[in-house]
């Protein structure tokens, strides 16, 4: 197996060539669209590393097929650059499959192109629930905002025993979706959302102070926050501490985006006590995850860690390998979608499956509390809900009807 990357690998017109096996059959071209620069650059790097880790740890997964990864930078989280990239990947590069898609707007603007161009699209992050309804060519290995949002809503009422909540969210599709998901889960279990606060966009980290002060003034039992991970999450934890919200008796809860592993240790004691629901964190105790974390540290350094995006890149590549192998290196789009439907995998996040009906992922959700252990922040497990589906589509809520 050989791996070759163009020197332009992280530029907009970048292409990376990854060839598997000495005796190649047909070549499969995969267009990878991710934020390699700008506010989401670390996400692109993290998912890329997940892709590379899968290739490294599973050298035989692609059989005798030769796979070329053609990478494009979607730059800003507004979908515009992603649209151009996908148009070029389909019309000029003539890719067989599309993957990546960090931000929801990138997937929302490009899903219709996957339909028009008849290209299977494997989403490695973008979490707005209804994205999978936009095209029969979309399958998602990452998550829907409802996986963690709805489950956290139920747990906030039943486990945390909260009666009232304020929701703060980044004001774009996955944020609105996360609000709706949490609200339905929480209120169906007897809680009441008493304020909903839009908190700026994904393109830059806002000053969270006025939003958090508004939440504090409402005196809720819990403050549920969704931000798109990264530096937004660091800002959330710092502002929560600076305003003395914990001392005021308000618990900070959210999806695991606010405790992303790659940012976690830099949050320090401010993050102790945070309760989150998510499909992955690096402390998960299973053999597949232990193997991935050890290999990741060996490859990228002792302080490096996979996070939920990294594992989604890993699993996305596993799904693509499954398609490529099943179709014997010749990608027929309809057969590729059939191969994705019902696909099962023993992931570092636990068992996952692509629901044949919705083409969305089915997976475990883990409820955890952050504690300090041996000088580092550690995700103490509280409970697991097995085989969670996207509740937006299950309930036929809002745009998922
Ligand atoms: C999204 O845009 O769908 C998105 C981005 C970052 C996250 C979660 C969702 O952490």
Q: Which structural category fits the helices and strands? A: alpha/beta
Number of E-type strands? 16
Ligands bound, unique? P-hydroxybenzoic acid
Shape: globular
Radius of gyration: 20 Å
Question: Beta-strand percentage?
Answer: 15-25%
**For the residues shown, what is the average pLDDT?**
94
Number of helices: 12
Task: Please give the share of residues in helix.
Answer: 25-40%
Largest sheet: 9 strands, mixed
Termini gap: 45 Å
Q: Give the SSE order as H and E letters.
A: EEEHEHEHEEHEHEHEHEHEHHHEEEEH
Uncertain ranges: 1-24
Structure notes:
By secondary structure, the protein is an alpha/beta fold. The protein contains 12 helices and 16 strands. The strands form 2 sheets. Strands 8, 9, 10, 11, 12, 13, 14, 15 and 16 form a 9-stranded mixed beta sheet that branches. P-hydroxybenzoic acid binds next to loops.
Give me the secondary-structure topology.
Layout: E1 2-5, E2 16-19, E3 27-34, H1 41-57, E4 66-73, H2 80-91, E5 97-100, H3 104-117, E6 121-123, E7 138-140, H4 145-158, E8 164-169, H5 173-188, E9 192-198, H6 209-217, E10 222-226, H7 230-242, E11 251-255, H8 261-264, E12 275-278, H9 287-300, H10 308-326, H11 333-340, E13 344-347, E14 350-354, E15 361-373, E16 376-388, H12 391-395
Parallel strand pairs: 3-4, 3-5, 5-6, 6-7, 8-9, 8-10, 10-11, 11-12
Antiparallel strand pairs: 1-2, 2-4, 12-15, 13-14, 14-15, 15-16
Helix pairs in contact: 1-10, 2-3, 4-5, 10-11
């Amino acid at each position: 197996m050989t791996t070759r990357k163009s020197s332009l690998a992280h530029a907009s017109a970048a292409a990376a060539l990854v060839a598997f096996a000495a005796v190649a059959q047909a070549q499969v071209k995969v267009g990878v669209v991710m934020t390699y620069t700008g506010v989401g650059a670390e996400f692109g790097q993290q998912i890329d590393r997940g892709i590379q880790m899968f290739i490294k740890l599973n050298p035989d997964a692609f059989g005798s097929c030769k796979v070329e990864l053609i990478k494009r930078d979607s730059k800003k989280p507004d979908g515009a650059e992603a649209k151009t990239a996908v148009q070029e990947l389909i019309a000029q590069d003539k890719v067989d499959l599309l993957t990546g898609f960090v931000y929801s707007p990138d997937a929302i603007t490009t899903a219709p192109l996957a339909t028009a161009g008849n290209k299977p699209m494997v989403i490695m992050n973008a979490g707005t629930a209804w994205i999978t309804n936009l095209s029969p060519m979309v399958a998602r290995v990452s998550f829907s905002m409802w996986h963690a949002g709805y489950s956290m809503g139920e747990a906030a009422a039943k486990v945390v025993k909260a009666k009232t909540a304020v929701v703060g969210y980044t004001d774009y599709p996955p944020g609105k979706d996360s609000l709706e998901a949490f609200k339905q889960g929480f209120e169906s279990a007897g809680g009441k959302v008493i304020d909903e606060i839009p908190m700026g966009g994904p393109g830059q980290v806002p000053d969270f102070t006025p939003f958090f002060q508004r939440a504090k003034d409402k005196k809720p039992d819990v403050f549920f926050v969704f931000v798109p991970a990264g530096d937004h999450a660091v800002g959330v934890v710092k502002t929560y501490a600076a305003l003395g919200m914990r001392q005021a008796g308000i618990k900070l809860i959210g999806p695991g985006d606010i405790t992303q592993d790659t940012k976690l240790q830099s949050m320090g004691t401010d993050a102790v006590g945070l309760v989150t629901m998510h499909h992955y964190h690096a402390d998960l105790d299973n053999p597949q995850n232990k193997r991935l974390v050890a290999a990741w540290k060996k490859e990228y350094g002792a302080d490096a860690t996979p996070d939920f995006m990294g594992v989604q890149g890993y699993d996305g590549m596993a799904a693509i390998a499954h398609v490529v192998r099943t179709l014997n290196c010749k990608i027929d789009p309809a057969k590729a979608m059939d191969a994705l439907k019902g696909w099962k995998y023993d992931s570092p996040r636990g068992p996952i499956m692509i629901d044949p009906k919705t083409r969305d992922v089915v997976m475990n959700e883990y409820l955890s509390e952050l504690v300090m252990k041996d000088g580092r922040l550690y995700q103490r497990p509280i409970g697991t809900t097995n085989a969670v589906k996207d509740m937006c589509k299950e309930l036929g809520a809002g745009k998922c009807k």
